[in-house]
Amino acid sequence: MNQITVTGMVLSTAPVGEYDRRVVILTREQGKLSAFAKGARKPNSPLVGAVNPLSFGEFVLYVGRSSYTIQSARISNYFSELRQDMIAAYYGFYFLEFANYYTREANDEREMLKLLYQTMKALTNEKLPNRLIRCIFELKALCINGVGPQVFGCVSCGNTERPMQFSVKKGGLVCEECGSDVIDGMKLHPSTLYSMQYIESSKIEKLYTFLVTEEVLIELEKVMERYCDVYVEKRFKSLEILQTLL
Length: 246
Hints:
Elements: E1 3-16, E2 20-27, E3 31-37, E4 56-63, E5 68-77, H1 80-83, H2 86-102, H3 110-123, H4 130-144, E6 164-167, E7 172-175, H5 190-201, H6 214-231, H7 237-245
Parallel strand pairs: 3-5
Antiparallel strand pairs: 1-2, 1-4, 2-3, 4-5, 6-7
């Protein structure tokens, strides 16, 4: 029997037939993959809890000609705390949907998987505002996928000394000499810019280690909302639901 073992997080699941499920898993070894969980909708199935979104662990897969089938799973973290908090849960579902949109099969998605795991852990930390977690996740996820903004110098000339404004359409900072045609410029609070620089340059394990003032958080939210409106083409159902709950 041709089997592989992968480590990953369940991104989504959908019913198939009467008792089965189709599961999308973001894995360390194979990128994003889809697998069938046969009988997973039966109450006595050993897979009934393992194939829910947010579940993180090891999955043993049978490799067929055109599909994978989950043989067994050993879940190390269900993130059950999130299931007891509707708001936190929908933040989590939004992050899963975001990752599902950006990741690909047979691609190296280790950084996105690591980001997802650390982000879910952050959602269980009552000291960290969910709004800040969202800003951090969105910015780092966009950077991982090569569409993050330039926040260390002018996008046009590279200058780092002249006064700057942030332009979503230009893709980042623009200095005063290059910004004559900028119509969407935002003058960022120094702490907002520093936060963005920290997020972009830090290792994922160090991301969720800081807090900001309400003023800076509001500005971060404004920047990321505008940026995502331009550079993220998909509209996420989980985010729409989340916004009705807030």
